[in-house]
Design brief:
The protein has 368 residues and is mainly alpha-helical. It has one domain. Helix content is 75%, strand content 1%. The protein is built from 13 helices and two strands, in the order H-H-H-H-H-E-H-H-H-H-H-H-H-H-E. Helix 2 runs antiparallel to helix 4, helix 7 packs antiparallel against helix 8 and helix 8 runs antiparallel to helix 9. The protein starts with a helix and ends with a strand.
């Protein structure tokens, strides 16, 4: 049976006056922009970070010039010391990261949507098709997958003796004695990151990959989502979470539900970071903190599996013909127009190579 016959009642046929060759070009262009949006996200975050760093350097230079230091060498050294002191401050670091990724995620999504012109930003926030009775189990299932990935991550670290995250990145994600920095970190991880990442990844990237096969779009966008974290500790976790977040968004027809589930995952991660890795680690030692954290994730694992089964039983699996979140459907046979076509997109390779290389550079030996 032909693809068009099998899914003729599920996919809106293309207009008769559209040539299949032109439709294939539209599909390839859509895939290309999914990768390009990730490239833009990377470039924008680097550009914003560079602008802020240059601004700090100029500010320090003016400060030293005002002090009228006669010794140029001493003035230059003082400028460097000032820049180091500012950039190593936890408040500065988390603030810069928040601004960088807020700008990068939103601008990359806006650029991609404007260039592709097949759906609009407001289409991503459509009417919610899932009741709260389904969104809550979906959020709990996300926590269960998070627990699974943490277990696997700990096993890999134990076997290899290598931590998949750099000390600098770990420091940005950790609580400190600076209250203002902690507040900004919570705002970023609980609000900014879930909202902007869902708009970019589930909103634009998954929809840009979905004209032919929604299952392919779900898996491919989840791979991108895992890669964009830039460290091996979070890549696998990001891939698993991306699968379920994408399923929630696609089944509900809106990124609003996946934002809620993403927030739940990040709240759980922040809770663990604060209670087990900051408070309990300091008070009771690594063994007690590690044991308590493992018990916490074991409970989440059980609850999450039950919630996942309930969610999938109520809503079903994602299929190739599952209705897309936005109007970006093309009725063409999927053969050769999914993974093969994506593999020929230079932008997809740029994203994959950069983040894998960055992940390799972030590997650090575990210290006893």
């Amino acid at each position: 049976m032909e693809y068009s016959e099998l899914y003729s009642d599920k996919i809106t046929p293309a207009p008769d006056d559209e040539d299949p060759v032109i439709l294939r070009r539209r599909v390839k262009r859509s895939y290309g922009w999914s990768g390009l949006s990730m490239v833009f996200q990377l470039l924008i975050s680097l550009a914003v970070s560079m602008v802020i760093s240059i601004g700090v350097g100029i500010y320090s230079g003016f400060t030293e010039a005002q002090q009228s230091i006669d010794d140029p060498a001493k003035a230059q050294q003082q400028i460097m010391d000032n820049v180091t002191a500012i950039t190593s401050d936890p408040l500065f670091t988390i603030s810069v990261n928040s601004v960088c990724y807020l700008c990068a995620n939103l601008l990359a999504a806006v650029i991609g949507i404007s260039a592709l012109k097949t759906f609009r930003m407001k289409d991503l926030f459509g009417k919610q098709k899932l009741p709260a009775a389904d969104i809550c189990p979906g959020a709990l299932a996300v926590l269960g997958l998070q627990a699974i990935s943490i277990f696997i991550q700990n096993i890999v670290v134990s076997l290899t003796g290598m931590n998949g995250i750099s000390e600098e990145t770990a420091a940005v994600m950790s609580f400190s004695d600076n209250t203002a920095a902690n507040i900004i970190m919570l705002i970023y991880f609980i609000i900014i990151a879930p909202v902007t990442e869902e708009i970019l990844m589930r909103g634009f990237v998954m929809n840009a990959l979905s004209p032919i096969d929604r299952r392919f779009a779900l898996i491919a966008s989840s791979l991108f989502f895992g890669l964009m974290h830039g460290n091996f500790n979070q890549m696998f976790n990001g891939f698993l979470l991306g699968l379920l977040l994408g399923c929630i968004a696609m089944k509900s027809g809106s990124v609003k539900s996946s934002i809620i589930a993403h927030m739940a995952a990040n709240i759980n991660a922040m809770f663990c970071a604060y209670v087990y890795e900051y408070r309990m680690l300091a008070a009771s030692g690594a063994d007690a903190a590690g044991t308590a954290e493992m018990i916490h994730f074991a409970v989440l694992f059980v609850i999450g599996i039950i919630a996942l089964v309930f969610f999938l039983k109520r809503n079903g699996f994602i299929r190739p013909e599952t209705p897309a979140m936005a109007g970006n459907e093309i009725s063409l046979p999927a053969k050769g127009l999914t993974w093969q076509t994506l593999a020929k997109c230079p932008s997809a390779w740029v994203v994959a190579i950069f983040y894998i290389a960055y992940g390799v550079l972030s590997l650090t030996p575990m210290t006893v």
